[in-house]
């Protein structure tokens, strides 16, 4: 798992940047902080689950907001930041600035009092995000991941309870939703099973049917699919003159089966286990429906970039 600094870990480098540069555009400050923290391309490529924005840079912007609330920085004009009244005292701590340091400032306390007066918070619940080292969007992401994990588990339970024939149809429907066969379910064709386990179906890779992908689906409740089963499927593919195949199960594949599939050179075989199938079902809305959509508004940094 790629490790990305928490938003509070950007407090000190941000303060160091504005102490050195003075008034600076927020965009430029972000880029300098990225370099100061030595973030690599892999870290910068991670996006927020809830909005698709770069996670690291998003956390830097949240750090701007927290520092402003605590007097660490100011926003003198649109899209710019500068030294705040508490900048020197924060840097004078001689250690990384923490969220508790911000909460100890008079500016922060005044903000909390104002919120209380407006009945935005109460004595026990000011802001959940202020009690942890995660931004509100981090908390949203955690909630999304928790809901998705539970949905995957529920889907697997449902899938393991349907008939083998229904499971085969489900797999072909997911592939059609992914765009195979031109996304047309009518292009899906059933194929009789052969003596060695055979093929459950075939689907055109494109609308013209220039190439086909052979499919086999195995609905198991507990048993893992082993190497012998995969070898039989590859034999059926070769007998049918097919170079591409997808083997799907509601359970898992043994390590031997995975190694065998990964080592194939003459044909290409993709293995999809139960968890991956459930994720594809969610992504392509097969067997699931959107319960509700929640919109979260956020400042448009480009709008306030200072450019007319």
From TrEMBL:
<dbReference type="InterPro" id="IPR007560">
    <property type="entry name" value="Restrct_endonuc_IV_Mrr"/>
</dbReference>
<feature type="domain" description="Restriction endonuclease type IV Mrr">
    <location>
        <begin position="161"/>
        <end position="281"/>
    </location>
</feature>
<feature type="domain" description="Restriction system protein Mrr-like N-terminal">
    <location>
        <begin position="7"/>
        <end position="84"/>
    </location>
</feature>
<dbReference type="InterPro" id="IPR025745">
    <property type="entry name" value="Mrr-like_N_dom"/>
</dbReference>
<dbReference type="InterPro" id="IPR011335">
    <property type="entry name" value="Restrct_endonuc-II-like"/>
</dbReference>
<dbReference type="GO" id="GO:0003677">
    <property type="term" value="F:DNA binding"/>
</dbReference>
<dbReference type="Pfam" id="PF04471">
    <property type="entry name" value="Mrr_cat"/>
</dbReference>
<dbReference type="InterPro" id="IPR011856">
    <property type="entry name" value="tRNA_endonuc-like_dom_sf"/>
</dbReference>
<dbReference type="GO" id="GO:0009307">
    <property type="term" value="P:DNA restriction-modification system"/>
</dbReference>
<dbReference type="InterPro" id="IPR052906">
    <property type="entry name" value="Type_IV_Methyl-Rstrct_Enzyme"/>
</dbReference>
<dbReference type="Pfam" id="PF14338">
    <property type="entry name" value="Mrr_N"/>
</dbReference>
<protein>
    <submittedName>
        <fullName>Mrr restriction system protein</fullName>
    </submittedName>
</protein>
<dbReference type="GO" id="GO:0015666">
    <property type="term" value="F:restriction endodeoxyribonuclease activity"/>
</dbReference>
């Amino acid at each position: 798992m790629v490790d990305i600094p928490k938003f509070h870990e950007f407090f000190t480098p941000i303060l160091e940047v504005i102490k050195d540069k003075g008034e600076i555009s927020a965009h430029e400050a972000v880029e300098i902080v990225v370099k100061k923290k030595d973030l690599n391309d892999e870290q910068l490529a991670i996006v927020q689950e809830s909005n698709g924005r770069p996670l690291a840079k998003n956390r830097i912007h949240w750090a701007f907001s927290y520092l402003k609330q605590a007097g660490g920085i100011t926003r003198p004009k649109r899209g710019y930041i500068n030294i705040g009244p508490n900048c020197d005292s924060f840097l004078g701590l001689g250690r990384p600035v923490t969220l508790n340091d911000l909460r100890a400032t008079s500016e922060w306390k005044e903000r909390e009092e104002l919120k209380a007066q407006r009945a935005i918070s109460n004595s026990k619940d000011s802001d959940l995000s202020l009690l942890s080292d995660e931004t509100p969007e981090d908390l949203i992401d955690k909630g999304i991941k928790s809901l998705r994990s539970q949905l995957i588990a529920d889907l697997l339970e449902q899938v393991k309870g349907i008939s083998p024939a229904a499971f085969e149809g489900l797999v072909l429907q997911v592939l059609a939703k992914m765009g195979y066969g031109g996304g047309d379910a009518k292009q899906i064709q059933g194929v009789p099973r052969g003596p060695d386990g055979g093929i459950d179906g075939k689907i055109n890779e494109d609308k013209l049917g220039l190439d086909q992908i052979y499919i086999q689906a195995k609905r198991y409740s507990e048993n893992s699919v082993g190497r012998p089963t995969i070898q039989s499927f590859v034999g059926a593919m070769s007998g049918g003159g097919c170079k591409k195949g997808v083997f799907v199960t509601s359970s898992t594949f043994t390590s031997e089966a995975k190694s065998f599939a990964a080592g194939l050179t003459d044909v290409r075989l993709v293995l999809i286990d139960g968890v991956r199938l459930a994720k594809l079902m969610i992504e392509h809305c097969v067997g699931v429906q959107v319960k509700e959509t929640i919109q979260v508004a956020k400042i448009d940094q480009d709008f306030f970039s200072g450019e007319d």
